Amino acid sequence: MTAPDLPDVPALPDLQRRLVEFAAARQWGPYHTPKNLAAALSVEAAELLEIFQWMTPEEADRVMADPETAHRVNDEVADVLAYLLQFSARLGVDPLAALSAKIDRNELRFPVGRPPGRTARATPAAADPASRADQVAAPASESTDRHSTE
């Protein structure tokens, strides 16, 4: 499968600067703590999820066909991204560099051709299929969801 054509996206530093200036002009700095921004990000992500709450997979695939629902999706995506960029700016995280590093790690962890659901293990014993019989469960830090970026 090939990657879809991606639209031109404004540079994130410009958006981050604009968001920081917007909040500063309104004197919101004292409220934009890492904890508060992370909480706001979580709330906005939940609002995005709420749009899809009772949809079938087929309905979810067609969500952007309805102008009113598409508008809601766009607004919630903007809210999620705005809080993520403000959170990143507050903590000095370069979100694109962080994502690039995470993709690099996931490319090693989930190599092409590996059966779905199998994560790479750091221990040499994990390479031996016989040693898997002794493992009861994967450590909590390892996701079994092959689509996860965590």
How does this model look, in words?
This protein is mainly α. The chain contains 6 helices and no strands. It has helices spanning 12-25, 34-52, 57-61, 67-91, 95-109, 129-132. The longest helix has 25 residues, at 67-91. The protein is globular, with a radius of gyration of 20 Å. Residues 123-129 and 131-146 have low confidence and may be disordered.
Evaluate the radius of gyration.
20 Å
Biggest sheet descriptor: none
Oligomeric nature of the chains? single chain
* Class inferred from helices and paired strands: mainly alpha
Report low-confidence residues grouped into runs of 5 or more.
Answer: 123-129, 131-146
Give the topology, please.
Layout lengths: L11 H14 L8 H19 L4 H5 L5 H25 L3 H15 L19 H4 L18
Overview features:
150 residues, mainly alpha, 6 helices, 55% helix
What is the compact description of this entry?
This protein has 150 residues and is an all-alpha fold. The protein has 6 helices and no strands.
